[in-house]
Amino acid sequence: MSGRLEAVRCEISAVKMGVAVSTAQTQQCVLRECHVRDAEVGIALFAGAAAELHGCELRGNGVGLSLCQGATATLQDCRVHHNTRSGLSVSARARAQITACEVCDNPQSIDGPGDVAADGGRTDPLRAMQ
Questions:
Q1: Distance between the two ends of the chain, CA-based, in angstroms?
Q2: What is this structure's pTM?
């Protein structure tokens, strides 16, 4: 079974997990101009799930975006800031592509051994990328 979630201009706040997508099949999540705040994990992707975030803000969460078990995410023109643990957590076999985003003012902006490619925008402090 595969599915698609698309949310536009949503406010998701004060929940344990803001948005969680997990499936053995391809699951697509598209968020546009959404605000996810005050959650333990703002957005969590598992088991090969994929997400596109456009113009979104992830703030005040424990972790802004968590990618695990082969999940992938593309972020464009997003702000990931003032999360209490990290902005992006990318585990092994997971991948994040960030373009023209601000990932800042988090204790750790990007953590984990996964693959992160950044193009433009501001990421500070950016973890060492080879």
A1: 36
A2: 0.83
pLDDT at 127: 41
Torsion sign (Cα): 33, 34, 38, 41: negative
CB-based burial label for 49 (10 Å; 0-12, 13-18, 19+): buried
Exposure b/e, 70-80, CB count within 10 A at least 16 = b = bbbbbbbbbbb
SS3 content of the chain, % helix, strand, coil (to 5): 0, 60, 40
Q: Degrees (nearest 5) of the Cα angle 74, 100, 103?
A: 80
CB 79 within 8 A of CB 53: no
Nearest CA among 130, 129, 76, 81 for reference residue 108: 81
Residue with tokens 């204790």: 107
CA separation for the pair 71, 49 (Å, rounded):
5
